[in-house]
């Protein structure tokens, strides 16, 4: 389900304001949007920025959002949930083309290639909107130059909530910059927890019982692999435990390791 709105009649000019260029509603709880890119913004695939809108008091309401667009894109894409009483998302879900959104051009984050040491396979494990940083990573040529295989695992409650990931795979395979490499190296594994689907269950359970690896026809996680994790607090902790058990060491920007976890969104709703 997609909605593309006409430009708003009156647009307020905001400090650090960027103009909304498109809006798409994937479900009644998920939407994505694109905005113009600040001329000064340079970022690494997987980083996030603070974005927001003015509150009732006029003071901006800001939250961390991963940049879902590739580093070379002339616009920025963001993927968000809708929380009816959320301080920001209750407002953000109503934006239209031509509106302005505050984008602070100071990217940061842990889910970057620089934070992991070289390896053979890269596992990108996400729940819900946690797929956003990986949408940038899998469209970065450096990712395919660094790894023999990239496995994107995305878990949501329903099949409809997986739609963004399926569309992302299509766009990646059709991308003239990385499409050929993605066709050879990118694997996409989608699971649901509340509806019947091809693959059912929490990704951590499927990793533990071996179904995840069996379905893909690959060897279990080992010390030659690298892992990036972005999801709920429970997912982050469980995949961290699985990674440590496989002999991997957690890394950071200051000390690269074999797996990294994005902690900026812990406590946020990721569907």
Give the helix/strand layout.
Layout: E1 17-25, E2 30-36, E3 48-54, E4 60-66, E5 75-81, H1 89-92, E6 100-108, E7 121-127, H2 132-137, H3 141-146, E8 149-156, H4 163-174, H5 179-185, E9 186-192, H6 203-208, H7 211-216, E10 225-230, H8 233-245, E11 259-261
Parallel strand pairs: 7-8, 7-10, 8-9, 10-11
Antiparallel strand pairs: 1-2, 1-6, 2-5, 3-4, 3-6
Helix pairs in contact: 4-5
Could you spell the SSE succession in H and E letters? EEEEEHEEHHEHHEHHEHE
Overall CATH architecture of the largest domain: 3-Layer(aba) Sandwich
- Given helix and strand content, the structural type is alpha/beta
Distance between the amino and carboxyl termini: 18 Å
Work out the helicity level: 10-25%
How much is the average pLDDT?
A: 93
Written description of the protein model:
- With 271 residues, the protein is α/β, with parallel strands linked by helices.
- It folds into 2 domains: 17-107, Elongation Factor Tu (Ef-tu), domain 3 (Beta Barrel); 113-261, Nucleotide-binding domain of ferredoxin-NADP reductase (FNR) module (Rossmann fold, 3-Layer(aba) Sandwich).
- 22% of the residues lie in helices and 28% in strands.
- The protein is built from 8 helices and 11 strands.
- The strands form 2 sheets. A 6-stranded antiparallel sheet has the order 4-3-6-1-2-5. A 5-stranded parallel sheet has the order 9-8-7-10-11, with helices on both faces.
- Helix 4 crosses helix 5 (179-185).
- It starts with 16 loop residues before the first strand and ends in a 10-residue tail after the last strand.
